[in-house]
Amino acid sequence: xxxxxxxxxxxxxxxxxxxxxxxxxxxxxxxxxxxxxxxxxxxxxxxxxxxxxxxxxxxxxxxxxxxxxxxxxxxxxxxxxxxxxxxxxxxxxxxxxxxxxxxxxxxxxxxxxxxxxxxxxxxxxxxxxxxxxxxxxxxxxxxxxxxxxxxxxxxxxxxxxxxxxxxxxxxxxxxxxxxxxxxxxxxxxxxxxxxxxxxxxxxxxxxxxxxxxxxxxxxxxxxxxxxxxxxxxxxxxxxxxxxxxxxxxxxxxxxxxxxxxxxxxxxxxxxxxxxxxxxxxxxxxxxxxxxxxxxxxxxxxxxxxxxxxxxxxxxxxxxxxxxxxxxxxxxxxxxxxxxxxxxxxxxxxxxxxxxxxxxxxxxxxxxxxxxxxxxxxxxxxxxxxxxxxxxxxxxxxxxxxxxxxxxxxxxxxxxxxxxxxxxxxxxxxxxxxxxxxxxxxxxxxxxxxxxxxxxxxxxxxxxxxxxxxxxxxxxxxxxxxxxxxxxxxxxxxxxxxxxxxxxxxxxxxxxxxxxxxxxxxxxxxxxxxxxxxxxxxxxxxxxxxxxxxxxxxxxxx
Length: 557
Fold this sequence. Notes:
Oligomer: single chain
Number of helices: 18
CATH class of the largest domain: Mainly Beta
Number of strands: 17
CATH topology of the largest domain: Jelly Rolls
CATH architecture of the largest domain: Sandwich
Distance between the termini: 48 Å
Structural class: alpha+beta
Shape: elongated
Strand order of the largest sheet: 3-4-5-14-10-17-8-7-6
Number of domains: 4
């Protein structure tokens, strides 16, 4: 802790707004490393598969640091033995200084040490190459590996906040490594919480900055060192954060804490007077109150709130009107499935949403994931203005596209999709394999195309979607249908299937769906989208229009 405070402590300027404090610049260079030499970012926060690389990188640099420590320790041990010998002489002299110095041998040794030995110590320290060797090795490692970038740090901070909001997690529990009441790992340190709060401050997410800074200070107060001057100085900096944001109550509480240990801090007494006046007058000022929500912000809409409620399991499934939902064995008239029918679980009747279990084996899913890991890149979304697809904050994952001929397992997936849906697979899109990272999600969207200019009209729109779950997910990560009040838990080897279009080939707006944030685990899926071309025999139109039932959902977004 003293390393953090002593080396990186800073005095906050009067104009702190949106500035990156000097000590944190230095801290981020060391703790988050530097950008790699090419400036490329692998966006490690966007998939768990990418994070696996970082374990190997950290192992390498940890080994380098251990080598440096071992080298320095040998050097320190050698110097310590010399210091101990000199201190032994000083201890002998303490009892009788005159008697000690009157001894010519002692006098000689004292003179010799100061004239000769101390120069030798300086030369030894000057010649020590441990530091230079370590820095040189680290520079080599930066050239050889892709280190996390600042974007990764910000991305992971935003992911934690996303999980906090979606699943209504308490900051204290999240900091303790507790997710939905289960402790999965070690707790965060007060420094971790502080830096998380700082990153949120930097992106102007002040409402989330406040609780993380408060958590940091609560944890710091529990340590004995909170009485020393350096720690109290650091707490003054946090007071400045809360004051700038307009959180005067927390700033006043922390100010009183500081003064309880050091009442001589006159400037803090003045700060206390100012904060007491702001609190008593009920003045609403500061960055939190200056940030006005943008009109039309989707994250403040009822549609987004409904999505979060479904992810939390707070909305109950609307009872089926036609008949009760059921599970059954079904071959779907596929000849190869007469003796080994599928295990079909009905999740919704109209629109029909089913989950088919035990379609793929563990070996099948592992083979697909292993092949995908070599080709993953940040998932992108279509732009309605016709411009090239790009990454977006509302879709955090990595993905790769495959021809089905690339592996036997992928050919099986295509065949299963055809047997389960009864559709013609000649115009199925390429297989997309995706992996979701820290808090990875995909906000509510339609799979069908909502504009004619972004897809090949000859192939038609996306008539059906099949999501092959390639892994289990411990917490979160479900597929949510907000309008149906349905959330589907990923189960390795199963397939989630639904139709995006009515039989009239008009969009079914009830199928709006989303990928809930992954709270714990690594979510792998394989997506198969089937186009409407040549499906007239497999799924013919009805005699009457059937799309009116979903039109009211079109305008809920």
